């Protein structure tokens, strides 16, 4: 026999919880991680300055993050490790140096620098080498240009593959000097062999990172003229 309807107790129906769906893909970026391009460049600039001032080993990612007002872990959103950040600093420096050097040489073309009744066309290589030297000093000693100096003294901290990649950029950079030096050698203004001259000149210019102090009065233009007098004969 069925029980009376009145005796059947109805159970309360539990409210269904809303389904919480996790967003797919990468987590939403934090405020520190937005505007990737600018933040990445800020990290590179700060890291280059700290690596140059303190050395790679003595600089922590916390130091770099603090320098740009980021949380200590935020640099790892842009770079997998401090080693990767070091390589990026050096790569950035070499690309900027190559571009700066190309602009200098474009301005040193004979048709660009030789006005009527000015120096004869044979002096064009001398104009070019002056601009190459000046651009190199800008790369090493100009305001905010800490990238290539870091490469000069911290390259041993890189892996073999990273060093090989940077070596290709270095070859591309130095190859612009060879035809200019060859022209100077042919004209008698450069006495030493071209390859040795290139190595000695760049080595001497690079060493200026160790002793140059803008506060002591010398300008980059004065350094350039001193280098010209040191390495070249009068035409």
The CATH homologous superfamily of the largest domain: Tetracycline Repressor, domain 2
CATH topology annotation of the largest domain: Tetracycline Repressor, domain 2
The description of the largest β-sheet is: none
Q: What is the helix content?
A: 55-70%
Give the overall average pLDDT. 83
Counting DSSP E segments of at least 2 residues, the number of strands comes to 0
- Element pattern in H and E: HHHHHHHHHHH
Tell me the layout of helices and strands:
Blueprint: H1 36-54, H2 61-67, H3 75-78, H4 82-107, H5 110-113, H6 124-141, H7 147-154, H8 160-175, H9 177-186, H10 194-211, H11 220-231
Helix pairs in contact: 1-2, 1-4, 1-7, 4-6, 4-7, 4-8, 6-9, 6-10, 6-11, 9-10
Structure description:
With 235 residues, the protein is an all-alpha fold. It has two domains: 31-79, Arc Repressor Mutant, subunit A (Orthogonal Bundle), CATH 1.10.10; 83-231, Tetracycline Repressor, domain 2, CATH 1.10.357.10. The chain is 60% helix and 0% strand. The chain contains eleven helices and no strands. The longest helix has 26 residues, at 82-107. The protein is elongated, with a radius of gyration of 30 Å. Mean pLDDT is 83; it is low at 5-11, 13-18 and 109-122.
